[in-house]
């Protein structure tokens, strides 16, 4: 059966094939260039103590511990060094979750951030980040609070010159 040159069936088949090729190409493009390399969740905690208590330190490496904080204190900090182990440039995005999230601030090269921190690392580059727990403006009660740092590592691409990483 010979179809006319511009029949509706042939046109629909052409558009369906073109759409399928476009979607396959777009999927390949996105997955090839916007690959999440690593995701790590780092638990963190702090203990607000009662009256006549002193500050306490917990240097264990199982969590990001801010230790015991007495009522007269309003902040504590911990530092963490991020090292790129990848043979290509990456973006490291750091966000917080949990009860402690409103109190955490990021400081890197004298720049402070509250929502999230996006670092750009070249191969074998080190960047040190200060995590500041600031409760001076937020009420809290005595007790233990938990949270988590979410660290997402994404490969840098040539398109990152035009778009800001998420």
Summarize this structure as a short list of keywords or feature phrases.
166 residues, alpha+beta, Immunoglobulin-like, 2 domains, 5-stranded mixed sheet, 4-stranded antiparallel sheet, 43% strand
Describe, in plain words, how this protein is organized in 3D.
This protein has 166 residues and is α+β, with helices and mostly antiparallel strands. It has two domains: 1-33; 35-161, Immunoglobulin-like, CATH 2.60.40. The protein has one helix and nine strands. The chain has one helix at 8-33; strands at 36-48, 64-69, 75-83, 90-98, 104-108, 111-113, 117-121, 126-134, 143-155. The strands form two sheets. Strands 2-1-9-4-7 form a five-stranded mixed sheet, with no helix packed on it. A four-stranded antiparallel sheet has the order 3-8-5-6, with no helix packed on it. The termini are far apart.
Write the layout of secondary structure elements.
Elements: H1 8-33, E1 36-48, E2 64-69, E3 75-83, E4 90-98, E5 104-108, E6 111-113, E7 117-121, E8 126-134, E9 143-155
Parallel strand pairs: 1-2
Antiparallel strand pairs: 1-9, 3-8, 4-7, 4-9, 5-6, 5-8
Summarize the entry for a quick read:
This protein has 166 residues and is of the alpha+beta class. Helices cover 16% and strands 43% of the residues. The protein has two domains: 1-33; 35-161, Immunoglobulin-like (Sandwich).
């Amino acid at each position: 059966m010979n179809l006319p040159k511009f029949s509706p069936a042939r046109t629909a088949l052409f558009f369906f094939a073109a759409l399928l090729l476009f979607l396959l190409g777009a999927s390949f493009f996105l997955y090839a260039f916007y690959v999440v390399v690593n995701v790590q969740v780092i638990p963190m905690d702090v203990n607000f103590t009662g009256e006549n208590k002193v500050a306490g330190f917990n240097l264990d490496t199982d969590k990001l511990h801010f230790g015991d904080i007495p009522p007269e204190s309003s902040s504590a900090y911990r530092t963490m060094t991020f090292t790129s182990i990848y043979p290509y440039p990456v973006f490291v995005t750091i966000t917080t979750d949990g009860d402690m999230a409103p109190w955490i601030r990021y400081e890197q090269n004298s720049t402070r951030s509250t929502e999230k921190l996006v670092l750009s690392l070249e191969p074998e580059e080190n960047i040190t980040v200060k995590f500041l727990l600031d409760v001076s403006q937020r009420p809290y009660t005595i007790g233990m609070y938990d949270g988590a740092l979410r660290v997402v590592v994404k490969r840098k691409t040539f398109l990152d010159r035009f778009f800001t990483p998420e």
